[in-house]
Amino acid sequence: MKQLLNMSIIFLGLLWFWKIADNPSWYWFFIILLAGVIIPEVIFPSKKKKKSKGNPKANSPKVSPSKKGKTDKELLTAKLEDLNGSEFERLVALYYKEKGYEPRIVGGSGDHEVDLILTDPKEKYKIAVQCKHWRTKNVGNDVILRLSSGKRVHKCLDAWCITTSNYTKSAREAAEGLNIRLLNGLHVQDQIDRWRKNKKSTL
């Protein structure tokens, strides 16, 4: 419709310019062309523009809702292999909180391989803890070296590494030299998972 009106205005304007008007000036020619563009735009505004005025958020990028992690109760009832890394960290924090420690989750980028900081209930010294929720891959000495660095950064007296898998020979050697306690999948199954099962029975 807008294009038809555009062409009609220009056609009638040119007809007037050549046939009807007496000795017309050339500036009328440009006025006719300009009118053919502006008038249809005023009468039939662009639908896209009109929509954006009525709904300014129409063209905003969609943000997918963040995925919520499991609740504390779900951490106790879910299968250990179904937990992700951050959920495993929270489970370890819950376990040591039950044991009397004061846990603080660090995590995030720049954590220097420290996921948790536990405060001893009696002596009040801090322990840097790294959690690795791995199924088959063994923890290497690179993780142990970074944990040792994180221990100093966070001013902790002790450091522990807890994994659901195991450790390489070089990781064990590094941990022995740096006085870092290693807890593997057997410990997780024997201590943490057994504690979970006992807690589930009371829910």
Written account of the structure:
With 203 residues, this protein is α/β, with parallel strands linked by helices. The protein folds into two domains: 2-54; 72-200, 3-Layer(aba) Sandwich (Trna Endonuclease, Chain: A, domain 1), CATH 3.40.1350. Helix content is 51%, strand content 12%. The protein has helices spanning 2-20, 26-43, 47-54, 72-77, 85-98, 141-153, 169-178, 185-200; strands at 102-105, 116-119, 126-132, 158-163, 181-183. It has a five-stranded mixed sheet, sandwiched between helices. Helix 7 links the parallel strand 4 (158-163) and strand 5 (181-183). Helix 1 packs antiparallel against helix 2 and helix 6 runs parallel beside helix 7 (169-178). Residues 56-67 have low confidence and may be disordered.
Overview in brief:
The protein has helices at 2-20, 26-43, 47-54, 72-77, 85-98, 141-153, 169-178, 185-200, and strands at 102-105, 116-119, 126-132, 158-163, 181-183.
Averaging pLDDT over every residue, what do you get? 80
Number of helices: 8
Helix content: 40-55%
Would you identify the regions where 5 or more consecutive residues have pLDDT less than 50?
56-67
Domain Restriction endonuclease type IV Mrr: 81-188
Protein name: Restriction endonuclease
Region (Disordered): 48-72
Keywords: Endonuclease, Hydrolase, Membrane, Nuclease, Transmembrane, Transmembrane helix
